[in-house]
Amino acid sequence: MNNPASTDILKELTKVLEARKGDSPDASYVASLYDKGMDKILEKVGEEATETIIAAKNGDREQIIYETADLWFHTMVMLAAKGLSADDVLAELARRFGISGHDEKASRK
């Protein structure tokens, strides 16, 4: 289940996103998102989510992968802006692993 390459890329991307917090908005796309604030970051997450949904509806495998990568990337920017990382989300997924989805959802009430 755990592909070392996939977790390595998430860790590397997390490092890059953290490093970009100190960069000039003119020098880095990520730094420009941080500079524009959470509303802009959330706008990008929403835009990428919509594009992912459209790609899935259209059924083009390559486009689904491409748009999902954009969605994950911008979601990771959002997490980093909030002081969180993919590790936090992975830990939550690990916590839920082996628990019925119905049971997990019911526990949130």
Describe the structure.
By secondary structure, this protein is mostly helical. It is built from 6 helices and no strands.
Secondary-structure map:
Blueprint: H1 4-20, H2 29-36, H3 38-58, H4 61-81, H5 86-96, H6 101-107
- Secondary-structure element pattern, one letter each: HHHHHH
User: For the terminal residues, how far apart are their CA atoms?
Assistant: 30 Å
Strand % is under 5%
Number of strands: 0
Largest sheet: none
Estimated structural class: mainly alpha
Give the low-confidence spans. Answer: none
Mean pLDDT: 91
Query: Share of helix among residues?
Result: over 70%
Query: What shape does the CA trace take?
Result: globular
Question: Cα-atom Rg, whole angstroms?
Answer: 16 Å
Number of helices: 6
Q: Could you name the key traits of this structure?
A:
mainly alpha; 109 residues
In short:
With 109 residues, the protein is mainly α.
